[in-house]
Recover the amino acids of this structure.
């Protein structure tokens, strides 16, 4: 009933999945050629810290975490992650808190980030509080821009040093200069 000539393996071969390429180099080729051909057949490895809200997806709610977020769809809610990239088709309606923010799409709401870059296709309605801001020609921005204070050694030294006090002027001289 059973024959030894046929494999009864129920592994990936039976599911129609092709076998992995053989890592041994073909005769007449170098080992580096074999390594390159294997790397070319592998799919690109995505970062496990990157989350994507794909185009056509609408999401309502807040998103927070320590990773990266790519928004190509529509988000209605607040975002608090380390790095946010809003694609050309992406839209966010809410507050964004991030270390790095790149906007190619639309944002309606406040932005608080260390680094903000508005690309030419960006449309932002809301206040931006940042340490660094870059705006490409063609970007549209409606709101206020506030630069956050940086912790620099020079600034700390200035805070510790007493500021020189202005000399008191004689009231009669001040009255004469007004007249």
């Amino acid at each position: 009933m059973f024959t030894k000539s046929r494999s009864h393996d129920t592994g990936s071969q039976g599911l129609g999945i092709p076998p992995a390429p053989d890592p041994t180099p073909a005769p007449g080729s170098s080992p580096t050629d074999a390594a390159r051909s294997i790397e070319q057949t592998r799919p690109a490895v995505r970062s496990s810290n990157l989350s994507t809200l794909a185009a056509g997806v609408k999401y309502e709610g807040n998103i927070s975490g320590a990773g990266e977020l790519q928004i190509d769809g529509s988000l209605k809610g607040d975002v608090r992650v380390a790095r946010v990239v809003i694609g050309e088709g992406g839209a966010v309606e809410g507050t964004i808190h991030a270390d790095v923010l790149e906007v190619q799409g639309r944002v309606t709401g406040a932005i608080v980030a260390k680094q903000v870059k508005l690309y030419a296709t960006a449309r932002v309605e809301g206040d931006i509080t940042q340490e660094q801001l870059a705006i490409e020609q063609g970007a549209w921005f409606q709101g206020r821009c506030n630069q956050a204070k940086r912790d620099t050694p020079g600034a700390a030294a200035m805070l510790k040093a007493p500021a020189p006090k202005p000399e008191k002027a004689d009231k009669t001289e001040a009255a004469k200069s007004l007249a």
User: Anything to note?
Assistant: The first helix runs from residue 31 to 41.
